[in-house]
Amino acid sequence: MAKKHRKLGEILYRKQLVSKENLIKALKKAKADNKRLGETCVEMGLTKQKIIDQVLAKQFGLKYYNLDDQEVPEDAVKLIPFDLIKKHSILPLEMNNGKLKIIITDPNDFETLDMLRFRFNADLECYYANPDKLAEFINNLNGGTGEQGTDGAEGDSASFGDDEGG
Predict the structure, then answer these.
(1) Pairing state of beta strands 99-104 and 91-96?
(2) Angstrom distance (rounded) from CA 13 to CA 25
(3) Tens-digit pLDDT profile for residues 89-118
(4) d(CA 93, CA 80)
(5) Cα(93)–Cα(146) distance, rounded to whole angstroms?
(6) What is the DSSP letter of 26?
(7) Among 4, 39, 69, 129, which residue's CB has the most CB atoms within a 10 Å radius?
(8) Hey, which residues does 99 pair with through a beta bridge?
(9) Is the CB of residue 126 less than 8 Å from the CB of residue 107?
(10) What is the pLDDT of residues 121-147, one digit of tens each?
(11) Domain 64-140: which topology?
(12) CA 55, 98, 137 angle in degrees (round to 5)?
């Protein structure tokens, strides 16, 4: 049975991250400004970007990867040609036992995900990261050699477990 994806606003409200009144205001403002709800909530000071990113990951059933707190193994970026990394805004983490662990920003980009499965003959384990942070990280890569210039440490993110059965 397919898992039903909850809307961002519903998750924010059910997790008590945004009040009903503020959510309604944010929804109206997002619609009027033609922006995404998460972006509007951050702009209005209702929540932080990191929380929006974690909720988006949960919404798509992915683990959240915080590029500010978690390291990317230097040799991992060599798993995929740099032109593919840059073109598709993806970042490999590890290839192990026929499974490619990868950071993505668009869980609905099925064409790219299928291409990766086929090209690398591997199952994918996808992690979600903030699109701006991932773009910045990729731009800081030194020609795809894996030289990162960051010294992030392993970090835990807030827990958004599947306690709601959704």
Answers:
(1) antiparallel
(2) 13
(3) 999 999 999 899 999 999 889 999 999 999
(4) 10
(5) 11
(6) H
(7) 129
(8) 96, 123
(9) yes
(10) 999 999 999 999 999 999 988 554 444
(11) GMP Synthetase; Chain A, domain 3 (3.30.300)
(12) 45
- The residue whose two tokens read 């109206």 is 28
Cα–Cα distance, 166 to 17 (Å, whole number): 17
- Residue 10 token pair: 């519903």
- What Rg do the C-alpha atoms of the chain give, in angstroms? 17
Contacts 24+ apart (CB under 8 A), 53-59: 53/128, 53/129, 53/130, 54/157, 54/158, 54/160, 55/8, 55/11, 55/12, 55/15, 55/17, 55/160, 56/8, 56/128, 57/127, 57/128, 57/160, 58/11, 58/160, 59/5, 59/6, 59/7, 59/8, 59/11
- Segment of 73-77, 101-105, 146-150 carrying the highest mean pLDDT: 101-105
What is the total residue count of the chain? Answer: 166
